[in-house]
Amino acid sequence: MFEGEVASLEALRATGLVRVPRPMKVIDLPGGGAAFVMEHLKMKSLSSHASKLGEQMADLHLYNQKLREKLKEEENTVAPHRSILRLITATGRSPPGRCVRELPGPHWCSVRSGILEGASSAQGDISLTGHRAEGAGPQYMSKFGFHVVTCYGFIQQVNDWQDDWPTFFTRHRLQAQLDLIEKDYADREARELWSRLQVKIPDLFRGLEIVPALLHGDLWAGNVAENDEGPIVYDPACFYGHSEFELAIALMFGGFPRSFFTAYHRKLPKAPGFDRRLLLYQLFNYLNHWNHFGREYRSASLGTMRKLLA
Predict the structure, then answer these.
(1) Could you list the residue ranges that cross the membrane (predicted)?
(2) C-alpha 254, offset from chain centre
(3) CA distance 274 to 272
């Protein structure tokens, strides 16, 4: 359980966009179980810094997209030099008047007096070195998922990487919760509604480009706070997913001032179909609560499925 939380806190800290407690150590207890030691922060309920948190969460959700844009810029900068570099590799000299000394971005090579300094790959092209240094920050993620299992309450979440968001969300979030409901309750109505709903899920995302966003994963009012310096978030279950997913539980159970959502959507406006997809993401949370707290969440779960089928 704690390994996923440690990895989540580290992922959020690495962006430098949101304040989280610094993870320190996971300790195995002699009598069984474990303890997670992290930085102590004096906190109070979120209030005056709600707008700032909204801005920070929008920045977090846009962070991977900006990494993608930066990567494309770097590739466009490097691409024109490739034919020159191939010629240098073949001849050992740069073309007249084209002495390439350094390439911008994360790749570099050096040519001194027209002679290539560096190595060639086995394919005869230049091995560009200079990958981002360790600790330079997160890299662009093109898939949906996370590199470790995380926990949503006591339920483990599989985060195996997927190429598209509807597949990831349907398989690793909704289906996983419904499998548990089937195991514990064998609820026929839930089974029948799900058989009809799952084939309609792709329609909710038709025409929508979804860039994987690093999500806190469990952004309800009990996992946010503030101090005099600004907002704080904790107890994350991170993964790369659709940014809209993050808002579902925040809207369901209250505790977030309107200023939070206003500031968030100022930076990340609602896309067409937002409200219908929000229902889908709220369904996940109702199912999760059904699995954690029992049948009192059955009605909300089934009612949300019916709304999505209407």
Answers:
(1) none
(2) 23
(3) 6
Instruction: Answer whether residue 48 is part of any domain.
Output: yes
Say which DSSP state 103 is in: -
Domain tally, the chain: 1
Known catalytic residue at 160: no
Say if residues 15 and 63 touch (Cβ distance below 8 Å): yes
Q: How confident is the model over 209-246, as pLDDT tens digits?
A: 999 999 999 999 999 999 999 999 999 999 999 999 99
CB-CB contact of 159 with 122 (8 Å):
no
Judge whether 110 lies within some domain: no
Q: Which residue has better confidence, 253 or 265?
A: 265
pTM above 0.85, yes or no: no
Closest CA to 51 of 228, 265, 269: 265
Percentage of the chain with pLDDT > 90?
77
How far is C-alpha 4 from the chain's CA centre? 13
Comparing CA positions, the residue from 214, 261, 209 lying closest to residue 16 is 214
Residue numbers of the domain that contains 262: 2-68+141-309
Q: Could you tell me which residue, 245 or 32, shows the higher pLDDT?
A: 245
Give the rounded distance of the alpha carbon of 157 from its chain centre. Answer: 14
Chain center to CA of 205: 18
In a domain, 97, yes or no: no
Contact 302, 191 (CB under 8 A): no
> Domain with 281 in it: what CATH number?
3.90.1200.10
Catalytic residue among 218, 228, 235, 275: 218
Cβ atoms of 64 and 141 within 8 Å: the answer is yes
- Which has the minimum average pLDDT: 30-39, 84-93, 181-190? 84-93
Query: How far apart are alpha carbons 69 and 303 in whole angstroms?
Result: 40
